Amino acid sequence: MRTTERGVLVGVVVTVAAVLRAGFVSVARVHVPLRADAGEYAQYAKNLCMHGTYSVSAAVPPVPDSFRSPGYPLFLALCRWLGGDGNWQLLATALQVLLGTLTVLLVYRLARTVLEFWPALVATALCALSPHLVVGCEYLLTECVTTFVVVAALWLVSGASSRARLVAAAAVCGFAVLCNEVLVFLPLAIAWPMLRTGRGRALLFTLAAFAPFAIWCVRNRVQPLERTGSERAIASISHGSYPGMVFRDPRCFGYPYLEDPEQPAFGASWESLREVLGRRVAADPWRYFVWYGCEKPVWLWGWRLVQGDDVLVYQVLDSPYEQQAMMRATHTVMRWLHVPVMVLAALGALGAALLHRRHRSWQLQVLGLVAILGTLAYLPVIPDPRYMHAFRPALFVLAAAAGAAFVARWRARADRPPPSPTTAPRSARDCHPLELADTSV
């Protein structure tokens, strides 16, 4: 296939991504958009613009805190500064549609570093059609921006042939950590496979990627804070400790901590967390082993949000997924494809993470480590698929890689001539399941 024909196909997929995202945002209306997490992010942005203080407090002057990661509030503060009090939400949503569309384009460029054209196009199409990623553009929550930043960092580092691009990749990766401090593992997941390209490159990337987070930590140490991120971490771990996300009443599914009489003390300090959770685990260790070791990973890679409605975080009025036939069809297709795609992604992640040093696709190993470590990072908290949004594009690439590897193996076996007595069989050590053919553009 010619390069121009490939460009047309990629352009069609990216255009579809833009239409889906713009269509959802233009029609859907979030019921009380600035509530819960979104309201706190908006308050941070307001305090940054009006007082120059990073704080969620409504007091004047606000008292600094570090309760939430600063990346997304900085994005909203920029929108507020550019759009003013009356238009900043509209501007933020429009920019998120743009970033969501660019994410799809970058997924293609990222996939082409490790895959041939057709598997890369499949991964791009999955990213374009994913309802989880489409609806993320509407909410004033971290997922859309964080997903773009993570994909941008992975794409930049995958083709970092110069020191300037390597530093740019590290800077973007560092901002991803500021968008969500759970992503603190991301620089290490990238740097470890990068070691095969040179220790100096890996060290430079690691130091540059951790610099923004180090500055954030210094800021939190040198001034008194009203609330800290560790308080939110403790509460989040306690909220995710309930097996099946039920305490007693199934009607409180997803919010079991609301009926737990030991809350909020349970999630108020590390001491209380250890005491209460330790006592409950000791009373039924097998149930908690299954919950943390088996059920939570599956829930995180699932379809339906734990705290939400299907793929919607907050209630939406006039959802295009209910009213428009085309969007309803994409939702149905992706819903039916979800399980096989995630199974392929799991196989691809495990296979890529175990790539030997002699294999050239260190970028594929990065994706595998990101998927695995990202899952492990969210095991302590509520196993909501919403938290995997930033890794979902990587999962699509891994699924396409695994699918392409299986197809290549099947074709090779079908085309293999009968063995002759003089032909020595190829050793299994000479190939890897995810080692693919030429990936030139």
Annotate the secondary structure layout.
Elements (H helix, E strand, L loop, with lengths): L2 H25 L1 E2 L5 H16 L19 H41 L5 H13 L1 H5 L7 H16 L4 H17 L6 H9 L4 H23 L7 H11 L30 H14 L1 H16 L15 E2 L2 H4 L1 H29 L8 H16 L14 H24 L26
Antiparallel strand pairs: 1-2
Largest sheet: 2 strands, antiparallel
Judged by helices, strands and strand pairing, the structural class is mainly alpha
Count of the domains: 1
Number of DSSP strand runs: 2
Helix content: 55-70%
Q: Explain this structure to me?
A:
This protein has 441 residues and is an all-alpha fold. It contains 16 helices and two strands. The chain is 63% helix and 1% strand. Helix 1 (3-27) runs parallel beside helix 4 and helix 3 packs across helix 6. The radius of gyration is 23 Å and the shape is globular.
At a glance:
The protein has 441 residues and is mainly α.
Features:
single chain, 441 residues, mainly alpha, two-stranded antiparallel ribbon, 16 helices, 2 strands, 1% strand, globular
